[in-house]
Amino acid sequence: MNTDAVDGGHLRAFIERIEKLEEEKRAIADDIKDVYGEAKGTGFDPKIIRKIVSLRRQDKHKREEEEEILELYLSAIGMG
């Protein structure tokens, strides 16, 4: 590859921005982990909280559709 065709300064700026965002992402992930720890410390189940957060992110229609399919499958295997 011909390095003369690559704008090193521009490329370096992109890489540095990505690295900075990755650092921020790790810090935010640590903060989220701390909040789950606090919730657990007050008696809440972090696994269930994670499930609720996941459900709240979903579109209502999609969530309802998945719940219907889940109920159908559970019924089919004798768990519903």
List the helices and strands and how they pair.
Layout: H1 8-41, H2 46-57, H3 60-76
The average pLDDT score comes to: 94
C-alpha Rg (nearest Å): 22 Å
> How many helical stretches?
3
- Report, as a whole number of angstroms, the end-to-end distance: 61 Å
Show unreliable segments. none
Give the % helix. Answer: over 70%
**Biggest sheet overview:** none
Q: Helices and strands, in N-to-C order?
A: HHH
* SS elements, strand count: 0
The oligomerization state is single chain
Residue share in β-strands: under 5%
Sum up the overall morphology in one term: elongated
Sheet/helix structural class: mainly alpha
Number of domains in the coordinates? 2
Family: Belongs to the UPF0335 family.
Coiled coil: 11-38
Protein name: UPF0335 protein F7D14_02610
Domain GapR-like DNA-binding: 9-78
Give a quick rundown of the structure:
It comes from Methylocystis parvus. The chain is built from three helices and no strands. The protein is mostly helical.
What keywords describe this structure?
80 residues; mainly alpha; 2 domains; 3 helices; 0% strand
Describe the structure.
The chain is mainly alpha-helical and 80 residues long. The chain has two domains: 7-43; 45-80. 79% of the residues lie in helices and 0% in strands. It contains three helices and no strands. The longest helix is centred in the N-terminal third of the chain and has 34 residues, at 8-41. 0% of the residues are buried. The model has no long low-confidence stretch (mean pLDDT 94).
